Amino acid sequence: MKNQPGPIPMTQRPVRRRSSTRASLIDAAEAIFEETGSTAVSVETIVSRAGFTRGAFYSNFRTVDELFFAVYEQQAEQVFGILTQTLQDTLTMAHSSVDAVVQGVVQGLSPEEKWYAIRSVLLTRARHDPDVNALLRAHTDRFHATLQPLLIDALRSVHLTPTVDEALFTRAVVAAHVGAVSQSMLLEATDAVRVAAVKGCILGLTTALTEPS
Question: Of 103, 90, 200, which Cα lies nearest the Cα of 156?
């Protein structure tokens, strides 16, 4: 009798299950935040929504804050994917312009309030919790470091260069956009404010690129 294939070793199984469980917990936390606008929820509430046990939660996350950071990070990765595409598109345009770069930033950086709302909550927690502070700082640094070369290349395509440190310039552009989005609850023309804020920041902190002689 031929040997039948044995079962998949147990060491190979948890990866897929844990990944699926983690994703379900993130989806549950995101849904709860959309309904309540708060991250001050219990583990029991989250696992009940996701259909898991406390053990499943603690196999994937140490704290509720860590879970909501994962929600924020997932949103941020989607934002960066869109932002990368929009800025790269400006580099392939036959006649690029400052307005094209501005539109690339504005269209790429999410105007979705949920992303900024979660970030705002995490920032508040970060003031009192070193672990949350470290997570948010590391992610923000990574986001800006990855965005920086894309933004600088887009500027060079329209013959501009920052008048300040490139890292500082990148943070200033993102901050201008975040500030505009924060006004969305008070304004009707949010898109126009986003464009004006980003364009003003770019024009105010750049100069014409000098061609090498």
Answer: 90
Determine the Cα–Cα distance for residues 188 and 89; give it in Å rounded to an integer: 29
- Which residues of the chain does CATH 1.10.357 include? 64-208
Instruction: Report helix, strand or coil for 54.
Output: helix
Supply 89's token pair: 């598109």
Lowest-confidence segment of 54-58, 91-95, 120-124, 200-204 by average pLDDT: 91-95
Q: What is the DSSP string of 115-170?
A: HHHHHHHHHHHHTT-HHHHHHHHHHHHHHHHHHHHHHHHHHHHTTEEESS-HHHHH
Architecture of the CATH domain 9-61:
Orthogonal Bundle (1.10)
Indicate the pLDDT class of residue 12, thresholds 50, 70 and 90.
very low
More confident residue, 3 or 192: 192
- Answer for the pair 25, 46: CB distance below 8 angstroms, yes or no: yes
Select the highest-mean-pLDDT range: 10-14, 101-105, 182-186.
101-105
Residue 107, CA atoms < 13 Å, CB-side half-sphere: 14
Spelled out in words, what is the top-level CATH class assigned to the domain 64-208?
Answer: mainly alpha
Could you tell me how many residues make up the chain?
213
pLDDT at 18 over 90: no
Q: In the chain, where does the domain assigned CATH 1.10.10 lie? A: 9-61
CB 196 within 8 A of CB 151: no
